[in-house]
Design a protein that fits this description.
Strand order of the largest sheet: 3-4-2-1-5-6
Structural class: alpha+beta
Distance between the termini: 32 Å
Shape: globular
CATH topology of the largest domain: Heat Shock Protein 90
Strand content: 15-25%
CATH class of the largest domain: Alpha Beta
Number of domains: 2
Length: about 300
């Protein structure tokens, strides 16, 4: 993976699949200690002791859809190649903590990348979860929490505004400039989303489900979700539910996208990049016409 934020998304997805309803992400850039660190902590089901010993082995996985688990192995290799390490602690029934550290100025350290997009995509599929993100840059910090979002996190325009707000917040870690205007815009959008949510509660919605396994993330699933949300927002569509799922065993076809319309068969599209995602919204979601050449499964 070319960005550390993609590794972060993989870790967050692991937490979701472990049944966590509280997940925290902490990223620290410490110039004095020359240290870059990522911590993901959850209250999920935890890892059995015998599995914990080999959890970063690529040939060990709890998934039944494939015989290898690449995510943690890739992150460990990346951290160690940058003068850092991967530490995992877990208790069954309590939760799991993953720490990845890197030498901040190491020439091989991948950039953090689109962490705001990662957070947006994760909370899109995790509406029942309380998620918090703290980012430290030396003595300054930025905080975000999904606590008050709930079902509003299914609103495309609001999700895109959350991404914008996080991007501004991280930029302000360097400049000390306030973000009042963005927060005001976000609050206004929350009110709009609440009104639209009341209108759609009485009717069934189209559901779009994006595969978010390690393979899917590496293949561009985050960008696929982003394109779907942008196209829905552009068309002022707020009654479509966008969510995510884990590995379903069709790695060669990732990113995978399911479209489920009320009273119709589920349609699964394969190798869905941002361009295809926009067309699926325009043709299938808006006009009800299946894009046949991209279908890999129809049930």
């Amino acid at each position: 993976m070319q960005e550390l934020s993609l590794h972060v998304l993989d870790l967050l997805q692991n937490s979701a699949e472990a049944g966590a309803n509280r997940v925290s992400l902490q990223i620290s850039e410490d110039t004095r200690q020359n240290l870059f660190s990522i911590v993901v902590e959850d209250n999920g089901k935890g890892i059995q002791p015998e599995m914990l010993e080999k959890v970063s082995d690529p040939f060990s996985t709890t998934r039944t859809t494939r015989k290898v688990g690449l995510g943690l192995a890739l992150l460990k290799a990346t951290a160690e190649s940058c003068g850092g390490k991967l530490e995992i602690s877990s208790r069954v029934g309590v939760g799991t903590r993953v720490l990845a550290s890197f030498r901040l100025d190491h020439i091989n350290r991948p950039p953090l990348g689109d962490i705001a997009g990662t957070v947006m995509v994760f909370i899109t599929g995790s509406r029942e979860m309380i998620f918090s993100y703290h980012h430290f840059r030396d003595s300054r910090q930025y905080k975000f929490s999904s606590k008050e979002g709930g079902d509003l996190l299914g609103h495309p325009e609001l999700l895109l505004k959350i991404k914008e707000t996080i991007e501004l917040g991280l930029k302000n870690l360097k400049t000390e400039v306030g973000q009042v205007k963005s927060l005001e815009d976000l609050n206004a959008l929350k009110q709009k989303a609440m009104e639209e949510l009341k209108l759609r509660e009485s009717k069934e919605s189209i559901r779009i489900i994006v595969g978010m396994s390690t393979c899917g993330i590496a293949a561009g699933a985050r960008e696929t979700v982003g394109a779907i949300l942008e196209e829905l927002a552009k068309r002022k569509i707020s009654d479509v539910m966008v969510t995510q799922t884990g590995c379903i065993g069709l790695c060669v076809k990732e990113p995978l996208v399911d479209v489920m319309a009320p009273g119709q068969s589920k349609v699964t599209y394969g190798n869905v990049d941002a361009v295809k995602a926009r067309r699926i919204v325009a043709q299938h979601v808006v006009n009800g016409l299946v894009v046949g050449e991209w279908v890999v499964n129809k049930l």
